[in-house]
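PT: before anyone asks, these are the final sequences, not the draft ones from last week. 465 residues across everything. Please model them as a single complex and drop the result in this thread when it's through.
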Amino acid sequence: MTQSNIHERLKALDIALSPASAPAAAYVMSAQSGNLVFLSGHIAKKNGTVWQGKLGESMSTDEGRAAARAVAIDLLSTLHAHTGDLNRVARIVKVVSLVNSTADFTDHHLVTNGASELFADVFGDAGKHARSAFGVAQLPLGACVEIEVCVELSE
Amino acid sequence: MTQSNIHERLKALDIALSPASAPAAAYVMSAQSGNLVFLSGHIAKKNGTVWQGKLGESMSTDEGRAAARAVAIDLLSTLHAHTGDLNRVARIVKVVSLVNSTADFTDHHLVTNGASELFADVFGDAGKHARSAFGVAQLPLGACVEIEVCVELSE
Amino acid sequence: MTQSNIHERLKALDIALSPASAPAAAYVMSAQSGNLVFLSGHIAKKNGTVWQGKLGESMSTDEGRAAARAVAIDLLSTLHAHTGDLNRVARIVKVVSLVNSTADFTDHHLVTNGASELFADVFGDAGKHARSAFGVAQLPLGACVEIEVCVELSE
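LR: through. Structure below.
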């Protein structure tokens, strides 16, 4: 892909990157080793504040999916801040999705698709990743979804 | 090890690889970066369908251990599909095991041994891995165990 | 940094490394691939035995933070046993922190700071890592906190 591609794709998808997230505590939002970038778990936000909720209780699967999509856009924004150019992304390698859910909710994979599908839309084949998704007891600040990513950059 | 070793070992252990798993959603079962392969979280299956249950409630530790072993065989099957030859495995590097459990169950490590011991049986020293195991609120489709793995291939 | 730095820093911080941890089950405490070392999830210990507790129920955030700091020291001890010299650490790349918590507790990030701040104190900029922290239903042996780390060594 040429540099214009990803930015044109974002525009075509009507996706605006968000301001880079700040860590909630004593860590950084991204750390690179070799050509792998590890992004911290990003919690879902809505209108700049924490998107709280628990799947199976106070949120529908569709809302969770929208939250996961919002996290993915924040992850892209952090990745853009880290790389300076999203066209340096060679591959979204691995996604881990933590869904704040009750012991009865079993659609964590559908919630997580909100992020996975965005990566596929933006990066095409390079957006196809290995993934784990599961239900956690609770998330920092009561967020409904937290997602971390491992990304390979081109040399 | 020569190529015949791993396949003979599987035969000696009476382990038949399963058909490659299909992703339940918008992702792929394995993604490689350099010589590291990241396998998606695989959920436990029994007779081809999701192996549901919650440790501490509807399943014994021994049953959980059998489920973790079944997941490990599915992971090997995906790895075989990815590599074309399991003898290319240089090391099972890292295992993360998510056990669907109540807030009272504390034997996640014994459940997870079902997978860890299989890797050690099949690969010997190359199967000895770093590992995290813990109890989650719930898993996709109600599965009892989900395991992901990071594997190093030989050059 | 020169070799004396890290060891002098540990001394200045009054941190004594612990005896290397033994795995609770069929795995190893660290596995290396290339120059990345993956440390197994280490559960919190106090006076050599498992530090049990659940945040939001039987433990305060401050106690949890102390437990996370204790885990970080055990992780450094394992890392020392693995490397033979902590000055070979180029970067603490990634931390995953599993906090045993109720469905009401939302300060997992503050608990985890006990570990993150220790890494920053010991390694300076090289201790700044990407991180995910979240609440799990339960941990092996009833531990209050479990933390795993990915570390880059210098060539």
